[in-house]
Amino acid sequence: MNDTAASQAIPRDGDAGSQASAPPNQPVQTPHPELQKAIDAADAKNSALAEQLTRDFLATHPSNVTALKLLGEMLMQKDNFASAQAAEALFAKCLELSPGFIAARHCYAKLLLKVAKFAPARSQLELLLRWDPQNVNFRSLMAYTLGQIGNYEDALKYHEAVLAEIPHTRSALMVYANDLRAAGRTEDCIAAYRRVLEIDPEFAGAYWTLCDLKTFRFSPADVAHIQEQLKQPELSVANRVYLNFTLGKSFEDEGKYEQAFAHFRTANALQRSILPYDAERTAREFARLKSIFTPEFFAERATAGCQAADPIFIVGLPRSGSTLVEQILASHSAVEGTRELPYLQLIAVQLRSEFERKLTGLTGEVFAQLGEQFLEGARPFRRLGRSHFIDKMPSNFAYIGLIHAILPKAKIIDVRRNPLDCCLANFKQMFGRSYAYSYGLADLGKHYNAYLDLMAHYNTVLPGKIHRVFYEDLVEEPEAEIRKLLAYLELPFEEQCLRFYESGRAVRTSSSEQVRMPIFKHSLGSWRKYERWIAPLKRELGVT
Q1: 24-53 pLDDT, tens per residue?
Q2: For the whole model, what pTM was predicted?
């Protein structure tokens, strides 16, 4: 599912739950007077002063667990890798000094979830639940965690138990509905989203998530209600974005393409106003990658990296058909589909300073360790014990050089679709704060060209390493294309790959309903329905 506030947010704390017997070494609750000044500053939303006062206090009281927790909380609110790392170290130190500090362990679990360390987060939550098994906040977080690692059977049990106690909690219901969708329980998922709207009829995110179910259709009354909401002058920009995307999809389903495009155009313009995109910066970043990953770079590191052959990376642009390819491969007895894993991008962020030095500071041993780090991150998602697993994060195409450096035996599949179809499908999709380039037709065209250019470079410096799948060819000749794909993966052909829609596996993307049906052709050439209004895209792509 898309990484949006409506669909992926970690559940907020609600009812504090019961107060079961806690471990005996909880810290003294009355803070030091000097630390109280920092707490007061934090309460007043003066985060800079609060952080400085807390750091000053810790300089003379390095073992004060309340201060360690406070600084960790402040750092975990920042959206950067270094702050998250520092917060993790602070919480670890805090809990080493005071293992029974429940509030700190709760924060630590939430931080681990934020940085996608799901297995360690689960361990922390298991400990918290051992101390306080009825705590609704801990159980809600456990439900979220289990859903994130694909254990939907247990996740849904936790969700249902929590919602029996807090049935009117919107955030918990949204996460429950998302997990129902991923698990393939579409009717139950629709009912859960409807329940969200009963609780909060103005919650625009629920309208979009319902609309994003490709098999769902709003009633005329629903559409009229959404249109009325858009007339409210106090409606936030974020809610206007969701509702305009929703109306665009609704009118498209009715074949009213001019009205649909008007709403898509409005939605994208509004999102662009709060999420800018710099195409020149992307061009510079891609040029930098081309300057790093050269034939000489790989020749000098021919024996570096982790030699595991388990991973299969499916890359490309969103809406290119990558979920279909994943579903086909995950129907093979030797391949497990996981999800869009964040771990390669986390490694890239971790190496930011090294990228500035063209990775020259890394030894072959370090490259191998980074490969192992990726495998360790993926481990909780490998539930079937199969020899290969898929990471379907589309934007990993930018890091193909890094993939080959740390996992030289990994397989890489580049999925492509007619550029007009692909870019327009992105333009019609609400990705939240992800894929900022997708909220402008010209930006989409520029990004598609930059993607082609970078992929051409990787195909030159890594000849034969990347297998390309064209969506249109796969739709027209599925067996022939699947046989080519499996041959590249060095796997035998299996008939079940042709019946991928029977697999019953969970899927966490916008195509989750589509890939549970046989291949269809009606999306081929769908850009023509909007040809009158996409001149900026056609111009960038050089299409006349």
Answers
A1: 667 666 788 999 999 999 999 999 999 999
A2: 0.88
Residues near 255 by beta carbon (within 8 Å), at least 6 away in sequence:
none
User: Which domains occur in the chain, in start order?
Assistant: 18-134 (1.25.40.10), 279-541 (3.40.50.300)
What does the block give as tokens for 485?
């794909």
CA–CA distance, 74 with 57 (Å, rounded to integer): 15
Q: Where are the alpha helices (DSSP H) in 308-386?
A: 322-330, 343-350, 352-356, 364-378
Q: Report residue 491 as tokens.
A: 């796997």
Contacts of 148-154 spanning 24+ positions with Cβ under 8 A: 148/113, 148/116, 148/118, 149/118, 149/119, 149/122, 149/380, 149/381, 150/338, 150/339, 150/381, 150/383, 150/506, 151/383, 152/179, 152/182, 152/183, 152/506
Q: Which amino acid is at 412?
A: I
Q: Are strands 466-470 and 311-316 parallel, antiparallel or unpaired?
A: unpaired
Please name the helix (run of DSSP H) or strand (run of DSSP E) that holds residue 388, with its range, or none.
strand 388-391
Distance from C-alpha of 40 to C-alpha of 107, rounded to nearest angstrom: 19
The span from the CA of 46 to the CA of 49, in Å, is 6
Dump pLDDT digits (tens) for 154-187. 999 999 999 999 998 999 999 999 999 988 898 9
Beta bridge mates, 466: 412
Q: 527: closest CA among 424, 439, 385?
A: 424
pLDDT at 400: 98
Angle at 116 between CA 113 and CA 121, to 5 degrees: 45
Under 8 Å between Cβ of 505 and 337: yes
Q: Give the position of tokens 């195509």.
A: 511
Nearest by Cα to 399 from 289, 480, 491: 289
Q: Which two tokens stand for residue 109?
A: 């679990």
Range 228-243 burial, b when 16+ CB lie within 10 A, else e: ebbeeeeeeebbbbbb
